[in-house]
Amino acid sequence: MATLAVDAANQEGGAEQKETKPDWKAVWRPRLERAQTFVVENYLPIAFAVALTFALAYPVPGSFLVHIVVLDNVHIIQEINMAIVFLISGLALNTTELKKAMKRESWPSVAFGWAMISFVTPLLGFAMREIPLTPPAFSVGLTIFCLVPTTLGIGIALVRSCKGNEAIALLLTVGTNMLGVFLMPLWIKFLFINYETPGLALNVNIPDLLAKLTITILVPSVIGKALRELFKPVEEFAKTYRTALSLLSTTNLAMIVWQTLSGARDLLFEQRASMIISVIVLAAAVHVFYLIINYFVVKYGFHPPIQEAVAVVVMASQKSAPVAVTVISYITSDPAQQGLLAIPSIVGQLSQIFIGAALAKAIAPRVQRKLVQYKEAAAAKEAAAKEAAAKEEAEAAESGLGAKGVGADSAEPSRATTTTFTTRTSDIPTPAASGELPPAVGEQPPSRQEGADSTGSALGPTSGSPRT
């Protein structure tokens, strides 16, 4: 019996060990989910880093693609990549979100953002073009980076991380990029008029540049938006696969960077490290300068709600590297020169990502606290208003009851007077009944005098009873 008991205990222990043995799927599934979340949230810097690594380590595939040219100066693969980016932008464009940003009270913030992105921040290009960098393509690249519109997707994601107003961020992105199609050719002509670029052959043809930007940026956006509005399945597809479409858009942006850097890889390695570092520092400084200017103007110029302020400051301080690379591909046909011109835009975009990520960690808790304070203040104001309304209703009810009471009191004495008069006149004894002699003239018994006084007092002047 003892042996059987020991065997049974051993079997139970073995069963417990089998049950407690961890399943590898249960162990790795949470880790894989965390890794997937990290990759999705940081896909843009990861994709840019991969593109940079492949372009510098093995540039042959990217260089081959960037040298495919049609119609004399159109790098067809890059054009397809950019068209896909704006087609997805149109597909993902939610009209409801745009309507939220077009409320009348939001127009000052939207107008300020448009003005800063399209008309004010490009003025910094005049300073950038005068910086004596070697080669001069770096200065020209910084100048072009200053005049392009705001970022396509990373700006909205950053506003979301900072708890800002996403609707305004979306409206600024769409509006300034559409407007930039018409303004960028003018800015380029204006910034480089009578400006000599040694070693660079820039072809700034406004009608040609306008036509190419329209085909690359405006037309795909309109097609994407039209497909979403006209076909319900397309809208459902865009909503269901929103994250996948965003990743596809970022992949196409990274492919543009990969091809551009691959074509300039050999020329890039010939540059001094100090110049590359200077370009990186200047590109980051441009973003920081924009942040400071926009912050102080928003804070002291006008006082929008904090979520609108965050959206405006973030979006008005960013510039789009892919759009800059596209513009560069239109003003020079040399892939090597394109790569040098694009370096400031690419490192500027990366600096915006890392600076923005650091800012989001500091700004988001502050915005959250402000929102809680706003809600508490609104709740307290609403409670005070309700309390005041209830007090007014109570006072009105009391005054109404008082008016009714006064009316009742004014009607009651007449009824009481009539009753008293009737009662007292019927109770007065006659001389015959009482057997008493009538009083002498001018003489009144004490009891009768008191009764007459009280009766006269009750009747008042309206009783008509003479006093004796």
From TrEMBL:
Biased composition (Polar residues): 452-468
Cross-referenced Gene3D superfamilies: 1.20.1530.20
UniProt keywords, alphabetically: Membrane, Transmembrane, Transmembrane helix
TM ranges: 43-70, 76-95, 107-128, 140-160, 167-188, 200-223, 244-261, 273-297, 309-333, 339-360
Alphabetized Pfam families for the sequence: SBF_like (PF13593)
CC terms in the record's Gene Ontology section: chloroplast envelope
Disordered: region residues: 1-21, 396-468
Entry-linked InterPro entries: Na+/solute_symporter_sf, Put_Na-Bile_cotransptr
Protein name in UniProt: Uncharacterized protein
Native organism: Edaphochlamys debaryana
